[in-house]
């Protein structure tokens, strides 16, 4: 018997251990990511383990496991994610809550400097991305936040 045939026979004989290792590794990664992707891959590996126990060749096991994992990712993961996020608070927070927030320019706002008082009571350093300065007292809206500086635009109500 040649070396390659011996190697293939070895892989075929011990493939179930490989499937168990993959299942365990994917489950550990899933516990760290909590994204359901690696859970679906572990389900696909479990299908691969079942096909090994049935006695199918390793190459068929891999194809079936990969197809099963793809099907789980495409069809099982989205409803699980939707159900998981069903109870989330839809209210924006942190920097996301500042986007489109209105305020008043406390000092003239240029591309370099400025200061605004927001409708939530916060005072921020500000700048404008455009070359046109925003005069003191003008109404502004935040378009982005860069570090601790609000990028603002004038609002013409």
Question: What do these coordinates show?
Answer:
This protein is an alpha+beta fold and 157 residues long. The chain folds into 2 domains: 82 residues, no CATH class; 60 residues, OB fold (Dihydrolipoamide Acetyltransferase, E2P) (Beta Barrel), CATH 2.40.50.140. It is built from 4 helices and 5 strands; from the N terminus they run ααααβββββ. A 5-stranded mixed β-barrel has the order 1-2-3-5-4. Strand 4 and strand 5 form a beta hairpin. The chain is rod-shaped, with a radius of gyration of 28 Å. The chain starts with a helix and ends with a strand. The mean pLDDT is 91.
Strand tally? 5
List the domain count as a whole number: 2
What is the chain-wise order of helices and strands? HHHHEEEEE
**Major sheet details:** 5 strands, mixed, barrel
Helix content: 40-55%
Give the spatial strand order of the biggest sheet: 1-2-3-5-4
Q: State the secondary-structure class.
A: alpha+beta
Strand content: 15-25%
Mean pLDDT level: 91
Shape assignment: rod-shaped
Low-pLDDT regions: none
Instruction: State the end-to-end distance.
Output: 85 Å
Oligomer: single chain
Instruction: Enumerate how many helices there are, as a single number.
Output: 4
- What is the rounded Rg? 28 Å
């Amino acid at each position: 018997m040649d070396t390659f045939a011996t190697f293939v026979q070895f892989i075929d004989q011990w493939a179930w251990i490989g499937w168990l290792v993959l299942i365990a590794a994917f489950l550990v990664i899933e516990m760290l990511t909590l994204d359901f992707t690696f859970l679906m891959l572990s389900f696909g590996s479990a299908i691969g383990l079942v096909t090994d126990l049935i006695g199918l060749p390793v190459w068929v096991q891999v194809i079936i496991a990969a197809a099963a994992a793809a099907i789980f990712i495409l069809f099982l993961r989205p409803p699980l994610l939707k159900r998981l996020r069903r109870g989330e608070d839809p209210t924006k927070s942190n920097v996301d809550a500042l986007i489109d927030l209105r305020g008043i320019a406390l000092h003239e706002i240029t591309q370099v400097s400025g200061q605004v008082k927001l409708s939530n009571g916060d005072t921020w350093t500000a700048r404008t991305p455009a070359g046109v300065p925003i005069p003191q007292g003008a109404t502004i809206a935040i378009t982005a936040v860069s570090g601790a500086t609000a990028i603002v635009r004038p609002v013409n109500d």
